[in-house]
Amino acid sequence: MSTAIWKEISNTPYACSSLTRLTGGTGNFVYRGTLSHPLQDGTRTVVIKHAEDYVASQPEFKLSTTRCRAEEYMLNALNDLPKQVEANVSVKSPRLFHFNQQTNTHIMEDLPNALDLKTFLRSSAASALSEPSATAIGHAIGKWLASFHTWGSAPERSDLVVEIQKNQLMKELKYQINYEVLMQTIDNFPDILEASRGVFEKVKGLAKEELERKKDEDGIGLIHGDFWTGNILLPNASNPDESPVTIFITDWELSQVCSRALDLGQMIAELYELKHFKDIDAGVWILQGFVAGYHLPLSDEVAFRTAIHVGVHLVCWGSRVPDWGTQEQVRDLVKIGRDFIVKGWEKDRKWFEGGVLGCLFGGR
After folding, report:
1. Name one GO molecular function term (predicted).
2. Does residue 6 fall inside a structural domain?
3. What digits encode the pLDDT tens for the residues 231-268?
4. Which CATH number fits the domain that encloses residue 296?
5. What's the CA gap between 260 and 77, in Å, rounded?
6. What is the pTM of this model?
7. Angle at the Cα of 182 (from 74 to 117), degrees rounded to 5?
8. 335 belongs to a structural domain
9. Domain count, the chain
């Protein structure tokens, strides 16, 4: 694949002297390219992302390339969204330099020496991260997400929304791998989940209804669609106490018009898992900063919907990551996820207050 990409870009301003395959993603073929000639702004490296009509790591799993157009539209439009700066941390999306619609190849801005946030928090570098620094990182990411959700609801984005609504296959995929898988997971933990089947069915029905809801209904709007720690990039020695930190929000293929709670809930769940499985305190610090930074007032409806999605993610994904934790830890996480779903559905605000999701309701 690298040979084909090399040939494709050889007669463009983005011709490269070397390509290095990047790890971490599963859906596409992603490389860091060293440019044969720097761009006018001094850029020397780029990220090249190539898609086929299947998952790169699992070719038998077919995946429509319409996802590439959604990412192109989003990245081009996001040039109009100012980066968010919080203390010593700035957050933005990468610039898109070039997109070849015939080959589904993106060439975009590189963040040198970067790790995704999940990998960073599990590395030795994160051990030097103080609570204020971790909170600042979370706050900046939350502030950026709020600005993105607000930006996406502006009338000026109506044409973009029309285009992103065409990304229906990816929207349905997100529903399937969360809410249909939720029902399937009951059979894996019947002693924990069977009694909640009725609530799970109702939650699945709600998520199904959301597929047809329109922008500007409560909590509905343009969302990232895959907003988790694996799609947050930062330099591998990031410490806001010592020097400015730049964070990239990447991977826009699942962009869609749906519940904003999906972006909030997925990120919160992933950060919570870092504490649950690996006892990484920075996971909770970033989580709390993230919710505080997302300064948009959450209606009870959106707060409870977020809690539900946190629970769904914990049950569906937290129980399936290989070698993530012991069987006892997995079972405990499934119980926690179940309770988030049930109490979120019941709108039991008092139950959440004082717990890790109390921050969704204005307290900890």
Report:
1. kinase activity
2. no
3. 999 998 777 778 899 999 999 999 999 999 999 999 99
4. 3.90.1200.10
5. 19
6. 0.95
7. 45
8. yes
9. 1
